[in-house]
Amino acid sequence: MPSQPTKLNLRYGLDAWPPPLALAVLSLQWLVVLLPGLLVLGEVVALAQGLDQAGRVAFMQRLLIMGALVQLAQVCWGHRLPGLVGPSAVLMVGVLATLGAGLAAVCGAMALGGALTALLGLTGLAGRLGRLYTPPVLSSTLLLIVISLGPTMRDLFFPPAAHTAGAAVAGPFLFAMALVGAMLWAQHRLKGLVSSSVLLLGMLVGSAAYYLLGLAPAPAWPAAGLSPWTPPSLLPSSLALDPGVIAAFVLCYLALTANELATVGSLLPMVGARDGDRPANRRGRPGWLGRSNRAVLVSGLGGLLAGLWGLPGPVTYSVSPGVLIASQSASRWTLLPAAGLVLVLAFWPGGLALVGLLPAPVVGAVLFCLMASTVYAALLLVTRDGTPVDWPSGLVMGTALIGGMVVTFMPAQARQALHPLLQPLLANGFVMGLVLAMLMEHVVLRRK
After folding, report:
1. Is the confidence at residue 224, as pLDDT, over 50?
2. Which of 1, 23, 90, 152 has the fewest beta carbons under 10 Å from its own?
3. Which of 21, 159, 138, 152 has the alpha carbon at shortest distance from 95?
4. How far is CA 28 from the centre of its chain?
């Protein structure tokens, strides 16, 4: 991989306001990067909860409101960096793996995990705990997300309606793979705003082509009752405390904290900022509650709100440095109009209802591309300095991936034979893989 330049030639600084036209274009670029992942991840979780059309629309409304509020808080007070905020894939995997314990237990664990994460940021301990996530562990975490979503992508590529069609079973899968190839080729060949909008265009064009080819009957238009500019219900969900689910989400939130710290740490040198708002002390450490801890605090509070609303919590996306390099703009203010448009979209349920028209294989194709980028990010973590991966790091990653894969595809009989309190942990491929990575890195293969 080419090395990152030590000094970027940026058009606009961190606190600069671009001219109106440039502000509109840069905000649109952030928006088209955010929307595909946000809509697809939200749709996957909503479908896993068994929500009907109206329920999925209300779910997406709350998800957009939560994301926009956390984005505004991060830009104005949290890390105050050009970092894009969206639902965390780590927490989404946690939700999908623990829904068997009941939605109330999942919401209670997410809310409690968010509160504990906020406490880590408030006390300044987030940075210290982040040291547990060395590059091999953090790389394993990203790869475990991909493995844990394997069953979900399988069900999207092979929808139940096609199982009775005999030879037509392969049709949706082949279409999805062709769409994946087209989107990845376009991302590789195109540049600028067009490249950033490939996934969004793929969702629209792919859905139209899927129905025109007769792979599924044309869907009915959304119900007329979903009128525009309707606020969603923001009442808290019912909460329950399940020890096994709480333990699983504590580990998920630790991974989220490491993701937040890594993203903030990669953005700081690019924009010429430092972590602490106060001068460093004699030991060279940043002042209390610097950018990293404030970022974790805001993400934790967002996770608490998300748990109350039954949503996967937010995180600052690691794709943010890439968008910054592509746009040559470090202005954090360009994210404010994007957050405002997301908030406006949240109050338009008629438009969000169109997300329900996306065929499952198209959703799976976009998720496939997102996971391919996740694998790239995982490999970049352990090869960023140009040196090959050493033997202990390879063993950490291999042990975590194999263990997570075995647990993810555990037979249903074995899963049901586990004690109900242990199922959220021992039957969760992501959690078990993460535990194995921690044990291998910090106990079995601990290095000086």
Report:
1. no
2. 1
3. 152
4. 20
Of the pLDDT bands very low, low, confident and very high (cuts 50, 70, 90), residue 282 is low
Mean predicted confidence (pLDDT) in 176-198: 88
pLDDT of res. 333: 95
User: What pLDDT does residue 29 have?
Assistant: 87
Using CA atoms, how far apart are residues 175 and 168, in angstroms rounded to an integer? 11
Beta pairing class for 314-316 and 85-87? antiparallel
Average of pLDDT values for 382-395?
A: 84
Q: How far apart are CA 138 and CA 173, in angstroms?
A: 31
The whole-angstrom separation of Cα 244 and Cα 248 is 6
In this prediction the pTM is 0.85
Q: Please give the backbone phi and psi of residue 35, each rounded to the nearest 5 degrees, phi first.
A: -60, -45
pLDDT at 284: 54
pLDDT for residue 103 is more than 90: yes
Q: Which residues contact 110 (CB under 8 A, 6 or more apart)?
A: 91, 94, 95, 249, 303, 306, 307, 311, 312, 313
d(CA 381, CA 259): 12
Per DSSP, the three-state class of 233 is: coil
CA dist., res. 387 & res. 334, Å (int): 36
316 bridge partner residues: 85
Nearest C-alpha neighbor of 32 from the set 270, 267, 337, 328: 337
Q: Are 14 and 335 in contact (CB under 8 A)?
A: no
User: Kind and range of the H or E element at 316?
Assistant: strand 314-316
A 10 A CB-CB count for 220 gives 8
271, pLDDT greater than 90: no
Integer Cα distance of 363 and 439 in angstroms: 35
> Of 361, 320, 299, which Cα lies nearest the Cα of 40?
361
Burial class (CB in 10 A: 0-12, 13-18, 19+), 259: buried
Gap between the Cα atoms of 273 and 8, Å rounded = 13
Which comes out higher in pLDDT, residue 167 or 81? Answer: 81
